[in-house]
Amino acid sequence: MTVERISRRAVLRGLGAAVALPWLEAMAPSPLARAASIVAQGPRRLAFLYVPNGVHMPDWTPAREGKGYDLPPILEPLTRFRDDFSVLTGLNQDNASSKGDGTGDHARSMASFLTGAHPKKTEGSNIQAGISVDQIAAKKLGRATRFASLELGCDRGGSSGACDSGYSCAYSTNLSWRSASMPSPKEINPRHLFDRLFGAAGAGQSRSEQDRARRRRSSLLDLVSEDAHRLRDRLGANDRRKVDEYLTGVRELEVRIAQSEAPPPDAPRDFARPAGIPIEYTEHVALMIDLMALAFQGDQTRIATFVFANELSGRSYAFLGVPEGHHDLSHHGGDPQKHAKLRIINRFHIEQFGRLLAKLKAAPDGESTVLGNSMIVYGSGISDGNSHNHDNLPILLAGSGGGAIAPGRHIRYSNKTPLNNLFLSMLDHAGAPISSVGDSTGRLPDF
């Protein structure tokens, strides 16, 4: 059969719904364009994942540099992706340090992580940080996609009130900043994110009307089924399989979200919780990461942030056998038992990062994969939670930016190298170069 070429912007449409498509062979340049050396490349994507309270650095840092290093205990869950990411040692975010403002390292660590700015110490509305790197990229690249950026997390954000030693809650709960005085609020509800991505809720409807509309239909895919059938008739066998797999993934997520919203069988009649947010943290994280992966795969956005938990998080990880609060454990005082429990928490977060890498690596994107065309940072604004230091931060960089960077290494930079130098280099390769970020001194060498 003759395969018709389709646009990378093509979507499946139905009543109030729009489902973006993954990259397909039918979206590649024609043979004539290939003969003219126009290569099918996917767009560059940037993501930043943040964990609070630092990590246990002795179990994080590889002993050897370069390729072929032994993965330390915390990073062992990433064994099958060791050629897809690099460990960057020696980077620091100096503007998270006190600079005469006293305590408040947790608030400063999140507020400065992507902004490179030293936040103003205030509990009032006169907050001041800086524009974050993701938003710098979004302003330059965001017009190409439906969403300029996505800001995701599992804990609610804040814009006022005192959270950390005289610092506003805005600093310790927001990673992304649209301007120096305006943080970008996180979406923490998987159902609401699903509806944003796929237009499943009617425009202008109230939340209660949206809920009633959902109950009247069995699936988002029912709304786009006619368009999906028409598309299949235009595709080759490989592309039909890719579309079927992608839509199956969308449907499975829809089912998981619906299941996560239902109260447990033994819940009392007056059981109350935020609608759409899973009771189990593990499922909450998994749903948000899977939705981020779908948004990248469908090219709905090319820039995203994800916060596992807000700074100063006292979340219990009892489901891992660690009932103590995370923040209290991070003040370990050298206690080996607390070290062991921190290792368990740190490994759990890394396992979820591996989940994202697996999904992005399995998704074709031009002549590479979504992961291959991405640059994904995982890290924290604190190194050791006990000392609250902001140098030698735990930083991973996954993906190869479309071949611009070489992953699979442990790169040790001289201590005090600005983390902002990494962001400058990433913006260069994403096609959104700027002259400086925070205390940056230039691009990272050996990047």
Structural overview:
- This protein is of the alpha/beta class and 447 residues long.
- It has two domains: 1-40 and 194-276, no CATH class; 44-188 and 302-447, Alkaline Phosphatase, subunit A (3-Layer(aba) Sandwich).
- 32% of the residues lie in helices and 16% in strands.
- It has 13 helices and 17 strands.
- It has helices spanning 31-35, 105-113, 133-141, 169-173, 190-198, 207-216, 220-223, 225-232, 237-261, 281-297, 326-330, 336-361, 419-430; strands spanning 11-14, 17-20, 45-50, 85-92, 150-153, 162-164, 167-168, 177-179, 182-183, 303-307, 316-317, 322-325, 364-365, 368-369, 374-379, 395-398, 410-418.
- It has a seven-stranded mixed β-sheet, sandwiched between helices. A two-stranded antiparallel sheet has the order 1-2. Strands 6-7 form a two-stranded antiparallel ribbon.
- Strand 1 (11-14) and strand 2 form a beta hairpin.
SS element count, helices: 13
Q: Sheet bearing the most strands, described?
A: 7 strands, mixed
Fold-level CATH name of the largest domain: Alkaline Phosphatase, subunit A
C-alpha-based Rg, rounded: 22 Å
Strand neighbour order, sheet with most strands: 5-10-3-15-16-4-17
Count of the domains? 2
**SSE topology string:** EEHEEHHEEEHEEHHHHHHEEEHHEEEEEH
At CATH level 2, the architecture of the largest domain is 3-Layer(aba) Sandwich
Low-confidence stretches: 34-40, 270-274
Percent in strands: 15-25%
Number of strands: 17
Oligomer, anyone?
single chain
| Cα-to-Cα separation, first versus last residue | 45 Å
How helical, in percent, are the residues? 25-40%
| Shape summary | globular
Structural class: alpha/beta
CATH class of the largest domain: Alpha Beta
The averaged pLDDT comes out at: 87
